[in-house]
Amino acid sequence: MSAEEMVQIRLEDRCYPVSKRKLIEQSDYFRALYRSGMREALSQEAGGPEVQQLRGLSAPGLRLVLDFINAGGAREGWLLGPRGEKGGGAAEDEEMDEVSLLSELVEAASFLQVTSLLQLLLSQVRLTNCLELYRLAQVYGLPDLQEACLRFMVIHFHEVLCKPQFHLLGSPAQASGDVSLKQRLREGRMTGTPVLVALGDFLGGPLAPHPYQGEPPSMLRYEEMTERWFPLANNLPPDLVNVRGYGSAILDNYLFIVGGYRITSQEISAAHSYNPSTNEWLQVASMNQKRPEHEHSAVLPLFRHLDTLRNVRRPHSQAADGVC
């Protein structure tokens, strides 16, 4: 078989050219078809290219899978490239949103058993697609993809919780003994290594961090191996620099810092959350700021608690157990 031999894949009234060699290499479906001796192929005309007929798939999904096969498999930026560029989907698919394209892509890749493409999806989980990929993994029986989505959603739990699609997948468990998605993610947040965190003013004494320069940080973590205190994070938002007397809480293994004041007596109204899974700070909107209804209902208990913390002042140090 020549490496340049091409096969036409027909779907309804359209044909898509693809390398026969790459088709057999990448698709378990076509590999089994050719090796079994089954020849569900037609010829357009005498001496013309071989034609394989497919039914039941969408054109955009099939086109993305065949583009992947023709490219010889995974390559950096294939799936998330800009529209109209190689690897970013055809320009005619511009009107389709990412959710629709993902659904049709996974359907085609699962039917044609393109394992390398399904494996590539494990590294393509994002906030914009994690819930849809999780749903598709359940529909098509893709446990590796399902676990990849769960790991990602555990890391970004609160951001995922605010997604409008979450209530569709995160509904309470129906059967006795089942665990809801929300409960499963919340439990996953607590599977790390416990870390002792201290919050307050540390100008000296046993909790003085080591090492530090200039103004001592007011948020510390204890490292058991060295038996020393270190700054909790080195990427504080500007709003939190040199802030004292703030309210604090640990919820779902996020550290929330609310309000406070600077040594100039300037009061701070901002609220921030620290995610130890990503070492990132995010600003939290106040309760009086307008937000989508789904987001408001999903995190309403959280924001009620944070509003209470806004008026709390803790001039003395305090300690809390966290899980990182």
Automatic annotation (TrEMBL):
PANTHER family: KELCH REPEAT AND BTB DOMAIN-CONTAINING PROTEIN 13-RELATED (PTHR46375), KELCH-LIKE FAMILY, MEMBER 42 (PTHR46375:SF4). CDD domains: BACK_KLHL42_KLHDC5 (cd18478), BTB_POZ_KLHL42 (cd18319). Residues 5-72 form the BTB domain. This is Kelch like family member 42. Keywords: Kelch repeat, Repeat. The keyword Repeat applies. It comes from the Eukaryota. SUPFAM superfamilies: Kelch motif (SSF117281), POZ domain (SSF54695).
